[in-house]
Write a structure and sequence with these properties.
563 residues; alpha/beta; 5-stranded mixed β-sheet; 21 helices; 20 strands; 35% helix; disordered N terminus; transport; SBP; Bact_solute-bd_prot1; TAT_signal
Amino acid sequence: MTPNASTSSGPSRRSFLASTAVATAAVAGGVPLLAACGGAESGSREGTTSGKDAKDILPAFVAGSVVTPDIASKNGSAVGFTGKLDLAGLKTSVPKKLGKGGKVTVMAPFWGSPPKGDNAYYTAMNDLIGVDVAWQNQDGNTYDQKLGAVLASSDVPDVVVIPGWNMGGKIPSAITSKFADLGPYLSGDKVKEYPNLAAIPTDAWQRSIFGGKLRGLPMPSSYVTNIVPYYRKDIFDEEGYDIPTSADEFMALAKDATNAKAKRWACGDMKWTAFNAFGVPSGQEKPLGWIEEGGKLVYRAELEQYLEALEWTRKLFAAGVVHPDFKLGKSQATDPGTKFAAGEFLIYNNDISSWYGLTAAQATQNPDFEIWGMDIFGHDGGDPTLYATQPANIFAFVSKKASEAVIRDTLAVANVTAAPYGTKEFMLTNYGVEGTHYGVEDGVPVKNDTGNNHVVNAYVMVASPAPTIAHPDFANVAKGQVEWQQRMGAFTRKSSFYGMQITEPSRLTSLSNDFEQLEDDIVRGHKKIGDMQQAVSDWKSKGGDKLRDWYRKILDENGPAAG
């Protein structure tokens, strides 16, 4: 959460960490089917869960009616709120405590210095829920190491939060063997006992099926790409630049806007936007990297448009229109937003959360600054072909050893943390206690230092409401973000493996690990397109074709994702 507003557009690692002032790369990946490679209880560590059986597993969906958003979801977008926050008018979504006073230990990643366990935020949340939640916060940067050690032991906390990017190695098999089936408490109409959980979109619950059972409590996300090509609208308006609608127009604009002697360049590394403009599916979420083309299952790196996207990005670097920091690779380690705000370059791609973050950061020191999201264009000037991201990527799991009382207390926690924007429960979960953690200035909640240190990285990890964007201090940004998602959502399609929670065979899962570095070397001119073609050929012979057959079997046995 940002200090002055709430943006819950479904964090991948990138967007979640962006909201906590840490920058890293987005990852995740996986759907809901019964085992393609062994039954749910067979101990199989590969495959997915059958969509045919999902209807017996999934919770019933009951849309929330406590709060009505200002902008409804459309084309897979988040819902939006554009009004000032009226604390006196906050709704109540949890009229009575569902917790029974038990203790629940939760292990979760934390970025920064975790607060002491008796702080006022934790105390207020536990009192509202009726559960004594004891946090075992772990360093988010080394969380995968801690996870491996804990899950290999017999001492597993009651609840463990696992982001999708930490689900490598033996973690997926541990999820199946170590964590409880929540179906007896949530499947079908049972979820209605927890109304805020019932309002979580079905796609997010589908992603929470592991080993044939509903094991995860999800943090839902919008399925529209989270990577926005940003531009300096104030400078565009001043210079009279038109928004490009094709790859050629972008190149022409970039050359016109660049003046190296004046220390102004057109753009940053546009690789991610290039992949979207050329119709290349995501490479960060492995199952989504496969698409059916001409009746054949094809991996993204085998597509002609993949090479075309790399070549176009390479030409931007070669033309000298890319800021030198990106050529040196500094953008991988530092936040480029500072030099974007200084006007050193006019266009770059970043997570959708940066729209608000940079606007708020520059509001007082640089009042003329205006960042806006450029619509993704089709490379040839036509409509783009975009691919959906996964509907959830962070999950909370309950130990198989947990008693029914602990499971129900955990669900009581999740029912509060999944409360929608505009409710008392949401405000406490995301902002803490008024006067202690935040104040309200002209209808805008503003965290103080205590709030910024204490109200982070905790309860929001247990479960979250449907994707929501709300910035009462910059309503135009919230409106812009949601409407951008709606426009891009109109061109977004679900790949065959959308929503699937898939565990690849361990012997084949790392085959494409070196592709991203090779991509970066190619666009910077250190390697050639032919090097990628050779890498793909090697990939195929070393197991890529076998992986294709493995995925083909999943589709043949389970069918593609709906929609």
